[in-house]
């Protein structure tokens, strides 16, 4: 047992929660003890978290009773839902992904209320319908959404308020890691490198995923001052040309920005293409507000280690280069 305040972390084996666990364990003040929550306590990642000093406890966002037990004695809880979770065909038929996220947020908020948790940090995003509207200008997805992995999280904000859970809304943004994955530069048949991004000439707010955890750790440390507040975060705000220029410098080879049209992006036909096309349209059409809400100095005040895109590239350019072959 420890007399330190305890933070229970959902998604602890994943990117956001994993970053938070590391940030809390690496904190020189070791202000908090860490409980890492996972559905699979014997996975390799779970065992690594235990070896690093976290208490590993089983919890499933689809099982409210498991959350209630897992939150027992916790001062704080980090709640992140995974819209993109792998699902069985039966689960796909049973409910939409937005319904899943809303139900999981409800379970987490209720369990936090019942366990008397003093500070929840809810990883959320804006409601894109405030900008994209609800008419047919932009295709509708999952019945009433434009970008369900944003909109459902924004709808869930109200659940934490309804249960009167002391909550900080942590509004995230596009992970820089996307540039080493689905949104990485690619080589054309002519051998040129292009960064295809549907952002027109507008800035896209990005963040290194580890900085979400580091900033969340700072929010827990800041404590009650941030309960009831929204903290909107990013590590950089760059246009497609600026992302391409940084990639050119890091890869040592020119990368040209290719501003893909939103309809062209949506027409690609891969699962999620319409939702992702809508998302980039939202980022572009709402960039003044979205960027304006994410003051880099304020984020850096919470998390002095906040990485710019060029900082992040200095650690990750090799991964991108390997991918290009
Ligand atoms: N990619 C982006 O640019 C971006 C930007 C902003 C926000 N987001 C949001 O980030 C979220 C995903 O976060 P991430 O990238 O940190 O996730 P991730 O790395 O893909 O990991 C998913 C985590 O969720 C946990 N999990 C999944 N289903 C669970 C359940 N039923 N009960 C308990 N835990 C569950 C997994 O834990 P176990 O498997 O160990 O149980 C794992 O730790 C998504 O909702 C997405 O919309 C993404």
TrEMBL record:
It comes from the Bacteria. The keyword Mitochondrion does not apply. It comes from Mycolicibacterium arabiense. Residues 4-288 form the NmrA-like domain. The keyword NADP applies. This is Nucleotide-diphosphate-sugar epimerase. Belongs to the NmrA-type oxidoreductase family. Keywords: NADP.
